[in-house]
Amino acid sequence: MEFFSNCIGFEQDIEDLFKSTFTDSEGSEEGALIAELVRNLFIDTAPDDIQVFLARAENDLVGAAVFTRLTYSKDPRVVFLLSPMAVATRWQGKGVGQRLLTEALASLREAGVDVAITYGDPEFYGKVGFKTLTESIARPPLPLSQPEGWIGQSLTEAPLAALKGSSTCVATLNDPSFW
To answer: Which of 20, 62, 131, 164 keeps 20 to 30 A from 74, CA to CA?
Structure first.
């Protein structure tokens, strides 16, 4: 298994991975929606505001995790939001997602990111250190349909203290249908 973060030249493969994975698990409408989200993240997000981490096995792209900047209006800490993430259906349950996230979080930590947040399954993401967040610790940019899925972690030695101010995500994610 190879892990890397240079997505240049892999954009279509990444989009296809998200489409097929989400189609398999959630249906074709969700697959198309998430593929479009990924395409728009690549097109509309400034290079400093997006980090993409990939896993490859047997010359195939088998996993991808997309992190984008999440800004808190009164907080100097660097925060990135994981959304979306996918592991190819035939590779699920083999530790690929956990290994990909472990590599991604280490890379973000080395790059000076202070906090990682996501909106997903607390059981899965808890395996790599994510913990439930309350809105008093980290306000989401839009109302959450499933508040129990708002999770995060400090990437520094310090415990996660409350993030100050309102939050703003990248424009592509600023859509209530994703929250």
So the answer is: 131
Instruction: Report residue 37 as tokens.
Output: 């989200």
pTM flag (> 0.85): yes
What percent of the chain is predicted at pLDDT more than 70? 100
Residue 63 has which token pair?
A: 């996993």
Question: Pairing state of beta strands 2-4 and 50-57?
Answer: antiparallel
Structure tokens at 36: 């479009």
* Phi and psi angles of residue 152, each rounded to the nearest 5 degrees, phi first: -165, 180
Q: How far apart are CA 161 and CA 92, in angstroms?
A: 33
Write the CB contacts of 97 (distance below 8 Å, at least 6 apart in sequence): 63, 85, 87, 124
Q: Residue 147 has which token pair?
A: 């508040």
Secondary structure (3-state) at 81: strand
What is the DSSP-derived secondary structure letter of residue 167?
E
